[in-house]
Amino acid sequence: MENMNSTLVPTPDTIDKDCQENVDQNRVLYIFYSSVVVVQFILGFLLNITVIHLFIFKLKFWKSKTIDIFLFNLVLADILLLIGLPVKAYNFQQCSEQKVVCKVQLFLQFINRGASIAFLTIISIYRYYSVVHPGRRKVRSILKRSPQISVFIWVLLGILTIPAMYQSFIRCNSSEKDKKLTAIVILREIVFFTQIFIPFFVLVYCSIRIIKRLQQKSVGDKTKLWRAMFLVTSVVFVFAFCFLPYAFTRAVQLKISGLVMKEEKVTVVKLFDGLLCLSYLNCLLDPILYCLSSSKFKKLYISMYLPFLLEKEKPESSEDTADD
């Protein structure tokens, strides 16, 4: 379980004394973490499931624009990630878990979070070429093969995530020998940090270039320009806010392993667990930033699920420039 350190993990048969002491000492904190995860699950699942319902039954995403297929896969990855949150919320409050359940949960968590980040990145790349380099037909033709790209991403992430089934961050009920830096552990950490930091730099680069391009081609519609710039900037901010603190804390956790006192390790673990909760916020914000930011999709969503707000919505002429 990613949310508890090895000091908080019991043997398969009995609850370790140190584990129980740590849980008792931090009971209030971990109940708070558990509550946050439950709230994120409820809000995120309701929002994502309604969005994906529109993609399937109203927009028929497989017949729509290329970006709609990527958006569908992004929302699907977020839903699959959210499904495991009730188990994680329960584990935040407990000191025991089944080894198989732990590893399956980690596998699903890693692959779905990786997929969410991957599709978020590919959407930014698609928008970058659509806005900044619309004349590069070869690249755009490749990006338009969205079904094939989507399948490739899921298969690749499934292969790269297999190490999570063998050794996890908390070594699901494992022995001391699993703490060594084996090839599997090193591969797992490389995949973990690569899928966060590389997409972040890609997002930053694409966003800067898109904003500069929008400023150059915008003539009179300043409101539309600022909305598009706000959307692009918000994507980078949300990604940085949700994932970078989580990744940096993980790096600190790896660096201090075996080098500091037990109390200091527990402090880092508690911080890591809190930032882990923060990272799930991405599942709630993705559909807002990528789907509801579109005027067309927003109107359809409100008419379906929030019709009482429809009369308050002012008609808009077209989608945001960044969504084209």
TrEMBL record:
Protein name (record): Hydroxycarboxylic acid receptor 2
Q: Which organism is it from?
A: Carassius auratus
Indicate how the chain sits in the lipid bilayer: Multi-pass membrane protein
Stored InterPro entries: GPCR_Rhodpsn (IPR000276), GPCR_Rhodpsn_7TM (IPR017452), HCARs (IPR051893)
Matching entries from SUPFAM superfamilies are given as: Family A G protein-coupled receptor-like
What's in the keyword line of the UniProt record? G-protein coupled receptor, Membrane, Receptor, Transducer, Transmembrane, Transmembrane helix
Residue ranges constituting the G-protein coupled receptors family 1 profile domain according to the UniProt record: 47-290
Gene this protein is translated from: LOC113120686
Predominant location category: membrane
